[in-house]
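Researcher: Sequence recovery benchmark, item below. Answer with residues only.
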């Protein structure tokens, strides 16, 4: 049996023609290369079968033993979509990401994590409740990943060639960042809050619908959500633009007094962890782009930025390569 081309984990309920808007037990799906938004082309797999296939896929990644060549190492990436997204829309967004970043000779492979967003702008607050519950389920996936990485690290102590062949990364969009935030806090707590363990090599927070002071604990440990993310991730990159009107609506609905990270960037009134940075994408998202909140996924310039981030290029190198990211002064 050939290895799957597309991968999906979901806590949505199953319907005859797709996945629904209600929370259900986690299920695992593979697609050999058919239409990503055609439910008939997806086949359900047991968790063990899914894991076996995934390990088989990573075993085919070319090994990288030279530290100087680490940017060439392949990735296993989770993509977590945002609010107001039904299953078919999530699959279509996932397909664009796969095509742009994970195709032939690309970064590796990407797994869609789709959660039961209500699929309606009027359902913003219920979506936030769904996101919190989805965090519980994503935490289970991250804990499984944590255990596997710890096993591989222990194996590598005795034989460096037994080290994991892939980096792990995560791309989250919009309220998918809130799902990720809650999941990482739970995973960190369940694993006894380890310090500076790189469960995720690169976390790309796209138009993040979370508080922009999420990382205000800085280098101290206060056991908050931001503390959990910073400790479990090698580097966190937040992409934002002040032209994001959707996140303006989000801030207005909450009245929490905090701006959205994906609209305003990091709150620099606090000393931030050294592994957290942000990029104002206003000048690389074309003027007049419709739906700025999702425009990151429709332009090659932003995909090039994500590609460089995921490869692990230094932030100064990235800013030099993409001059529009440079801060004035």
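Model:
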């Amino acid at each position: 049996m050939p290895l799957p081309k597309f991968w999906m984990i979901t806590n949505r309920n199953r319907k005859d023609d797709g996945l629904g808007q209600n929370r259900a037990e986690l299920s695992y799906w593979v697609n050999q290369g058919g239409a990503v938004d055609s439910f008939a082309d997806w086949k359900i797999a047991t968790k063990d079968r899914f894991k076996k296939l995934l390990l088989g896929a990573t075993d085919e990644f070319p090994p990288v033993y030279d530290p100087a060549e680490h940017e060439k190492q392949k990735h296993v990436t989770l993509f977590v979509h945002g609010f107001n997204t039904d299953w078919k829309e999530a699959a279509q967004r996932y397909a664009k990401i796969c095509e742009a970043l994970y195709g032939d000779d690309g970064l590796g492979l990407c797994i869609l994590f789709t959660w039961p967003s209500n699929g309606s702008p009027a359902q913003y607050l219920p979506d936030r409740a769904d996101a919190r519950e989805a965090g519980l389920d994503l935490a289970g996936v991250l804990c499984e990943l944590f255990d596997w990485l710890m096993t591989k690290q222990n194996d590598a102590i005795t034989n460096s060639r037994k080290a994991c062949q892939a980096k792990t990364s995560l791309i989250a969009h919009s309220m998918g960042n809130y799902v990720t935030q809650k999941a990482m806090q739970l995973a960190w707590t369940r694993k006894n809050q380890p310090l500076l363990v790189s469960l995720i090599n690169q976390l790309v927070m796209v138009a993040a619908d979370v508080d922009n002071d999420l990382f205000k604990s800085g280098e101290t440990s206060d056991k908050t959500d931001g503390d959990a993310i910073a400790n479990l991730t090698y580097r966190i990159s937040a992409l934002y633009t002040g032209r994001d009107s959707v996140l303006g609506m989000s801030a207005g609905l909450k009245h929490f007094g905090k701006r959205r990270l994906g609209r305003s960037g990091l709150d620099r009134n606090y000393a931030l962890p050294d592994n957290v940075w942000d990029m104002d994408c206003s000048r690389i998202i074309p003027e007049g782009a419709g739906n700025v909140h999702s425009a990151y996924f429709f332009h090659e310039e932003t995909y090039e930025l994500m590609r460089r981030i995921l490869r692990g290029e230094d932030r100064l190198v990235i800013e030099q390569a993409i001059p529009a990211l440079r801060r004035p002064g």
